[in-house]
Structures are given as C-alpha cells and as structure tokens.
Amino acid sequence: MLLLALGVILFVVLYQRRVIKHQVELERINLQKQQELLQASIQSEEEERARIASELHDDIGATLSSVRLFLHNAATGADNEHLEQSKKLLDDSIKKLRDISHKLQPATLFHLGLEQSILATADVINRSGSMKIKFTSTNTLPRFNGQVELSVYRILQELLNNIMKHANATKVDIETVLSDKRLTLSLTHNGTGLTEDSYHELIYKKGAIGLKNIENRRKSIQAAISFYTDNDEYGILLTVPVEV
Questions:
Q1: Using H for helix, E for strand and C for coil, what is the string for 11-76?
Q2: Separation CA 226–CA 244 (nearest Å)
Q3: Staple 178 to which of 125, 133, 139, 190, CB 3.0 to 4.6 Å?
Q4: Residue 26: pLDDT band by 50, 70, 90 thresholds?
Q5: How would you class 187 by CB atoms within 10 Å of its CB: exposed for 0-12, middle for 13-18, buried for 19 or more?
Q6: What integer best gives the mean pLDDT of the chain?
Q7: Rounded to a whole number, what is the distance in angstroms from the first to the last CA of the chain?
C-alpha cells in the first residue's frame, strides 16, 4: 500500500510538472508569435515609409527641380516678377519635400548612426525656433543593431513631437548614457508633461496614435519607459538593452 501511495504521489507530481512545462511552452510560443507580428508590422511600416520617401525624392522632387530650371531659362523677355515668384514657390516646395523625405527615411541614421541623428534632429528644431534643445552624450555611441537604432530614433521623434504640440515647453535637454549593455535616453523639459499614470491610461484609449507608436516600438526592442517630475521639470527615461 505504501509503494502504491508513493507511486500515485509520484505520478501526480510528474503529471503536474508536465502540465506546468506545457503551459510555460505555450506562453513562450504565444509571446514569440506576438513579437514576430509586432516586428512584421513595424517592418511593413518602415518599408512603406521608404517607398514613399523614394517616390517623393526621385519623382516629385526631380520634376519640381526641372520646372525650376525651365523657369530660370525662360526668364529673359518674360514677366520677371511672376517668374521669380514661381521660382520661390518651387524652392519652398523642394525644401518641404526634402524635409518630408528625411522624416520618412532618415538617411543620417542609416549612414552615421543614432548619435549623429539626434544631433541633426536637435539642430533642425533649434533652427526652427520652436524650442531650444541641448544634447549631451556621456559616451560616444557605437553603432547598434539597426532595429534598435531605428526604434529609439522613432520613439525620440514621437516624444519631441508630443512635447512641441502639447507641453508648451521652451527648452528640452536630451542625454544618452551607455553602461553595462544598456542605453539610457533621457529627456527633461520645462513644460507640462505626462505622468506615469496618465501615460498608461492614454495608450489604451482611442486615438493617441503617437503614444501607441511609442509603446509598440518600445516593446519591439524590449525597452522600458518611465515618466517623472523633478524641480518643476518633467522627465522621460527610455532604457534599452543593447549589444556593443
């Protein structure tokens, strides 16, 4: 009887272990599938951005450049005032198309890396006069995995866009720190910002597309994001595991 009881107990224990192992494996498979779907969605979005950027640059941009050259050559003996105005409008259109193309497909990121892309973004915003941005990096950032660089850059774009639109901030400090295979990107600003609770509330509400994009990007690279206040300033921390 004792041996039978021990056998039953052993069978139950082994059966429970098998059930638990099976559940863990199912959870792992489901998590992997979710990650693959998320990566596929982001990759599809980036491919569409690249296609649009290429069409803007190669087709529309080239056409506008040709029209400008034609107007310049036709200036002799024509209505110079109207021609000059047309040239100015075309110059503005070409510049806007270049800006859109850069936002859709950031060439600086792919060629020079994350650090130079942050510097370039800060320079564009500073020259626009909408905010004053200061960028510091405690380490010279190496090149990371392409997906990591792109996701961090897109998250930064969304955060800065939200700050410009909603925070009424006049200055933003951006800092990167690389330590122990972990990249930390911090933003502090003097406007009105999100709290930890409001962020997690908004990402599940209808709309808030920018915040949902941040959350999807964050999950795709297994990063963590947090929000805090310090001496009347709002701060955001993005922590990303990286291979260096």
A1: HHHHHHHHHHHHHHHHHHHHHHHHHHHHHHHHHHHHHHHHHHHHHHHHHHHHHHHHHHHHHHHCCC
A2: 24
A3: 139
A4: confident
A5: buried
A6: 80
A7: 61
